[in-house]
Amino acid sequence: MHPAQIISHDTSLFTAIETIVRNDYILIRHADNRIGGIVTTADLSLQFRQLAEPFLLLGEIENHIRRLMQGKFSKEELGAVRDPSDDEREVGDVSDLTFGEYIRLLEEPSRWEKLSLRLDRVIFIKALDDVRQIRNDVMHFDPDPIPPEDITKLRDFAGMMQVLRQAGAV
Asked: Is the dihedral of CA 70, 72, 73, 74 positive or negative?
């Protein structure tokens, strides 16, 4: 047995990670000098998932959207949906678009038809807009935790895109 590693309650998690991993746990000492908690490697894993999952899901969704649209639209069509306030940015490929621009592109029924999806366009765009709003909160580091229902929306959308990919649509 090794002696227990003890850290102060005000030590940052990032400072403690190496010690937790090396010892499988640490004890937390409160300001009044009593031991008031334990942090384990399992706790680190859960914290990592909570922090990383939204980023990973958003990356997966964006990759699916890009594959879905790749080669289906002309450079002119892609450029036409560019945010008008961002007229300096070049748009030559689907990967140059933002989530809002994906939505603008697909709102046009004739463009939607190019995807050959057997999905309701309005429902798909609504779900994609929900993803866009969640993405903006995540990528702009909103200090509030991501609500569980938003994680569920991301998981569901990513799952739907995975099913489309397996069916050969993406």
From this structure: positive
